[in-house]
Amino acid sequence: MADDEIQQNRTGPHPLALHVASATQNWTGAGAAFPLFQLGDMQIHPDLKQMAKDLHHDLVGVDLEKLLLLIMQKAQSRLSDTLSGIKIYQQHPYKREAPTVPLFKQIGTTELRDYGTQVTEDAPVIIAIPSLVNPAYILDLMQDNSFMGYLASEAIHPYLLDWTRPSDEEMGFGLEDYILKRMIPMIRAVYKHHNRKIHLLGYCMGGNLSIAAAQILLKEDIIESLTLIATPWDFHADQPQHLSAIIENFLKIEPLAQNMDAVPMNIMQLFFFSLDPTLSDRKFRKFSNLDPHSEKARNFVAIEDWANDGAPLSPKVAKECLINWYQQNQPQNNNWKIAGQSIDPSLLTLPGHIITPQADRIVPTASAKALQKKLHHFSHTMTPGGHVTMIAGEEAKTILWHKIASYLK
Description:
Layout: H1 3-9, H2 16-28, H3 30-39, H4 49-58, H5 64-91, E1 103-107, E2 110-114, E3 125-129, H6 147-153, E4 157-162, H7 175-194, E5 198-203, H8 205-216, E6 223-229, H9 243-250, H10 254-257, H11 265-275, H12 279-288, H13 295-307, H14 315-327, E7 337-338, E8 341-342, E9 352-357, H15 365-374, E10 379-383, H16 389-392, H17 396-408
Parallel strand pairs: 3-4, 3-5, 5-6, 6-9, 9-10
Antiparallel strand pairs: 1-2, 2-4, 7-8
């Protein structure tokens, strides 16, 4: 594909107008905010009040008119960097080359891909469960940056569950359907094929689904261990105070309010954007200063392409995530039920590993740490990076992958 074709095809980050408008409003408003700050009329986050007080003290005797001009110039420069970063991203020549991975089993549109065809029969067997919201290939991002490929190179037999694009049948699914009709049959099939217990690894929302599957399968004794990466549990911990209002407004959006056939990925992108509205601005400003030919820039584009990819969700799944999890906090309150069981991690007796990134705004550390209180016997790793970079960043292999492989062995 020619570079100009790539430029025409990449229209993200999605929704583009929101990202541009948000950055524009934030930085053009910087000059207007300064007089309010000086007058003491600006609302300050409680955690920043002491810093604001110190700043007021430092500004005594400063030429405020000159400072205001500097603030406006800096704001203009930052906005320029953000817009430049977005343009560089849109025009970057990187294009993912999807690998050919053998299909082990398919149920409906859900696929289980076998990445361990070259490993020995006695290798530990693991099934990786990604989120339903984004594509599975974050765990197989690039040929030279593939978590699945790394596990296979470490003499571990990895399988990747890929939800793919839902058909008419899956468009009627809720979380329970995905767990009982897709995940669990896949786990049983791998167990039967290898005749040995299976390590289960859940990433993000896939961790929640894995906890439920592991509890339902307890009596069958077919799960060897459970690894939970950036998995939320207390959905009210360290979230913005306006979370409830955000959810109420999202539930009024047409695809959710009118029970349409599908919830476009842009709707969920908009929700996650609302949890941290300045994240996009920060990361594209930083990206604008990278060498576009560097490995770091290529990796950024690969991850950003993944983040802007994804199939629509069923209305039932989207509503369950927004209402049952983010609004009612059912998992933390032991009110989330699958197959008639209240899913309670403390009931799990199998060994496991909880991995929490240090700089995660999608799943705040406090949300993920709620699992530690319920899974006292699990080991815990706090790892550098954010929600995505800690598992797919250019340093993930040295920071995290080797720890997971060592644990599984």
